Amino acid sequence: MTSSETQALTDGFHLVIDALKLNDINTIYGVPGIPITDLGRIAQAEGMRVISFRHEQHAGNAASIAGYLTKKPGICLTVSAPGFLNGLTALANATTNCFPMILISGSSEREIVDLQQGDYEEMDQLAIAKPLCKAAFRVLHAEDIGIAVARAIRAAVSGRPGGVYLDLPAKLFAQVMDAAEGQKSLVKVVDPAPQQLPSPDSIARALDVLKSAKRPLIILGKGAAYAQQDEIVRSFVEKSGVPYLPMSMAKGLLPDDHPQSAGAARSLVLKEADVVVMVGARLNWLLSHGKGKSWGEPGSKRFIQVDIEPREMDSNVEIAAPVVGDIGSCLSAMTKAMGDKWPAVPADWIANIQTRKDVNLEKMSAKLMSNTVPMDFHSALGALRTIVKQRPDAILVNEGANTLDFARSIIDVFKPRKRLDVGTWGIMGIGMGAAVAAAVETGLPVLAVEGDSAFGFSGMEIETICRYNLPVCVVVFNNNGIYRGTDQNPTGGEDVAPTVFVKDARYDQMMAAFGGVGVYATTPDELTRAVNEAMDSGKPTLVNAVIDENAGTESGRIGNLNPQSVVSKK
């Protein structure tokens, strides 16, 4: 047979990679192992960026944040069974947070799993994944890889985004087919997240309700930030003249020092507002479900809700004016329909908010300027607040209990999608995965502000940060424990209390051990100097910021979610 008669072939490995690249997906986050090690090797050889982590959960968290930042599904690649389960936590978290992500896992062969014959890492992964994501698909034949990847992409980004699971049994990768036929089987997804236009009636109804307000409020959620319709959001807010309250990951859609920002008067505006416009935000636990003491008298508010998911409406309280559609289309229509003579917001409402803001900011100012040793949360975050203001393009990652709660209100953000945190579930452990993805996807410097407990969930990934030489500065607020390091064992026994860590742990030396820069900081000046040097150099850095172990409070400022026992042993 002559060379011209030799048939060109392809296999499952290459078809998966070609399907992703055809859809402009060029980065994979994952952990190598059987049966997907060669998939990572070949992907890298084919020009994809493959970022290998030390644990699948953190690779998954990175993929979900990549999806949030790019509006394309982030890809997490794991091995079967235990590796899949590790990635599944991140997949469920992505779905809950509405981040587009695809978890691709190798798996055992169907015939062995179905007969429970005891294969290597045997598990019915598809069945386990289905309840925790938007969609789940299994591919058994190489010629179906293209359509499966296309369906996964569309499911992940269309409507309300979320997580998708793609199950690839080991035998699939070795399947061979004609290269030309394989190429024909691939699908480039056209318009994967089409506009969803709101009905004209819903726009008119929403504006009628808003126009009736004496004390209106806009709440911006991370869905508004994800939409990347920043100018449209800003135009709507500014034309309406309505004060706005950003949820934590929506901070920066308009700068936190914008005159309409009501962030420093949060309690007042939530309690006193009579009409609340929800834009890409949900009335879940983060907003007390839209009811309770923080919202004032029952029935005192009317809600307008802008969301792409119609089933979100009336989830906790009655929505007087549901506006269903994508945020760009909805807010464009509302802004246009306001016309040129939209009534001004009552001056007394604006004045009341400004008075409360001035009082609260003055109270906070003195705390932020404290120079006590050891630092407390306010003095340490005061130093970081100044750095972030001076570096508005840097991306802030934030998690912890007190570290998260205080930072949300202390550190201002000035540009959209520059703050990444624990999101809807409020789970710990997203920090290093989010930091890696932020650096990889944007190329911008990243400042990860971590409680020492939160850092412990993903701390080994600082080796990943060093390995890929990423411009990430990690600041660990070290107060020797969970909430604080002062709890005692009530029995007087040798074991420390469950919330207490090793005293004066040197997290900075961990970073140095991997070739990064480790800094020990005990004062705001030392903290400022270390972080500025790290951000200027772009070198992987960890600053061990020593915080007074007495400074923390139980569960940050949501202690009511952690009920105290009322039963004592007599």
Give a written overview of the molecule:
By secondary structure, the protein is α/β, with parallel strands linked by helices. The strands form four sheets. Strands 3-2-4-5-7-6 form a six-stranded parallel sheet, with helices on both faces. The longest helix has 22 residues, at about 345-370. Helix 22 (about 525-535) links the parallel strand 18 (about 515-520) and strand 19 (about 540-545). It has three domains: about 5-185, Thiamin diphosphate (ThDP)-binding fold, Pyr/PP domains (Rossmann fold, 3-Layer(aba) Sandwich), CATH 3.40.50; about 200-355, TPP-binding domain (Rossmann fold, 3-Layer(aba) Sandwich), CATH 3.40.50.1220; about 370-560, Rossmann fold, CATH 3.40.50.970. Mean pLDDT is about 95; it is low at about 565-570. It starts with 8 loop residues before the first strand and ends in a 24-residue tail after the last strand.
Structural topology:
Layout: E1 9-11, H1 12-22, E2 27-30, H2 37-45, E3 49-52, H3 56-70, E4 74-78, H4 82-97, E5 101-107, H5 110-114, H6 125-129, E6 135-138, H7 145-157, E7 163-169, H8 170-174, E8 176-178, H9 179-185, H10 200-211, E9 216-220, H11 222-226, H12 230-240, E10 244-246, H13 266-272, E11 275-279, E12 302-307, E13 321-324, H14 327-338, H15 347-368, H16 377-390, E14 395-399, H17 402-410, E15 419-420, H18 431-442, E16 446-451, H19 452-458, H20 462-467, E17 472-478, H21 507-513, E18 517-521, H22 524-537, E19 541-546
Helix pairs in contact: 1-2, 1-7, 3-4, 3-18, 10-14, 12-14, 16-17, 16-22
